[in-house]
Amino acid sequence: MVNRLVRHLRLTRSWWLRVLLVFVISRAISALLFLYCGSIEGGSYWNGPNPEYFDFLNVWDVEWFHRIFDNGYPTILPVDAVGAVQQNAWAFLPGFPYTVKIIAAITGLDWKYAAPLVSTMAGYCLSLVAYKLFALRLSYRTSLWAVLLFNVSAAAPVLQTGYSESLGLLFMALALYGWLTKRTFTLAIALFCSSLTRPGMAAFGLAFAIVWVIHEFSNRINTRRGVALRYGAEDQIWLFLFACYALALNFVWPTIAFLATGHINAYVSTELAWRVGYPDNGGGIIPLAQWFSPAKYYAGPLLGTILVLSAIVGAVVFQFWRPLQVLGREMRAWIIAYFAYLFAFFFPQSSIIRILMPTFVIFGAVAYATEKWKPWQKGLLIAGSLVLQLGWLLACWMYIAPDYSPP
User: Fold this and answer.
1) 137 and 364 Cβ atoms separated by less than 8 Å
2) CA dihedral 402, 116, 156, 208 (to 10 degrees)
3) What CA–CA distance (Å, rounded) separates 89 from 93?
4) Would you state the pLDDT for residue 228?
5) Distance from chain centroid for Cα 316
6) Domain boundaries, the chain
7) CA-based angle 229:230:232, to the nearest 5?
8) At what angle do helices 375-392 and 140-151 cross, to 10 degrees?
9) pLDDT (0 to 100) of residue 403
10) pLDDT means per 10 residues in the chain (407 residues)?
11) CB-CB neighbours of 1 under 10 Å
């Protein structure tokens, strides 16, 4: 099967057609897995038993995007008896639901069909940009292999659902491509669109800052050695300005939420409302604390602490993996920055696999490390990925009450 697919890809001369073939096959397989899981699911909060395909794609957080599509955002935050902000639409950025609203107005489609359609089309565009991004550092063949690995990864089915992942990752990929190719306008627009589609601007700001520091350190060493500077002042100013720009964009949506509701902490308070149902949720947003608290609860004080420290050490050691270095300084800085962003702000739970998807550039390193594997070995890797995909759907997407494992 793998050999046949490779032959088809070689016969397809246009790179975008090759990416399309990879994307269509991977999404078709995910669709079959959705159909299987839907056929064995009992009743859920959103559907009755054995939901149809498009009904099954519109569950979990899709409900919130649908509410935004229908009614926009509340101007009065819902609160409980003691005044604590409850779950509401402000936790979800407007880029995806309003894009769907535009497409629905043009096509006349209902949300149930328009949302997966927009998500799937954005997923294909994401695959195109990811291919071009990988091709800046890898061969064309390896870049296509990386795109295939990403599209069969565990949480990849979300790329065809009513979630914002496809559109958000598309803007992130465009931003990375604009950065590496010094397309200033593309980078600026992609970052702005990303800031209204998916959280993560703080990670971009940190990534720019990391590269700026590395360049500055390299220049100072060259100055002491009496050799020409490797990085010019213009490049450093460019990085500094984009670091500031990305950090400023991080406050755009919280500011909009404040202006619309009059509650200065509307966005953060809404985000924290999702932690209330979890035991020992770490209180507010305290860097690293929200990782240690649940780990200690589920695994005990000693083992929980060891697990979190091991995750941190593993993330650091991972940066020295040789295939990762092939991706170049910018993509490595993005991976480091995004990991740091998660350790600082994310409350660990079952969504972690989906939340890690912005580090999709890692699949470029995996593709580079496995590019010389034999076809049967690559076939086993794909099969293993699809098994993980099915496991993710069974554990996270399917609803079995009471269910505390959202995708």
Assistant:
1) yes
2) -110
3) 8
4) 64
5) 20
6) 16-198+375-407, 201-249
7) 75
8) 30
9) 83
10) 56 84 98 97 92 96 97 95 92 98 97 98 98 97 98 98 98 98 97 97 97 89 72 89 97 98 95 77 69 79 88 92 95 97 89 96 98 96 98 96 87
11) 9
Instruction: Give the integer Cα–Cα distance in Å for 352 and 395.
Output: 13
Dihedral angle of Cα 205, 208, 214, 216, to the nearest 10 degrees: -100
Asked whether the beta carbons of 196 and 180 are under 8 A apart, the reply is: no
Neighbours of 72 (CB within 10 A): 14
This prediction has a pTM of 0.94
- The residue whose two tokens read 């490595």 is 332
**CA pair distance 137, 131, nearest whole angstrom:** 10
Q: What is the amino acid identity at position 398? A: M
Peptide bond into 402 cis (omega under 30): yes
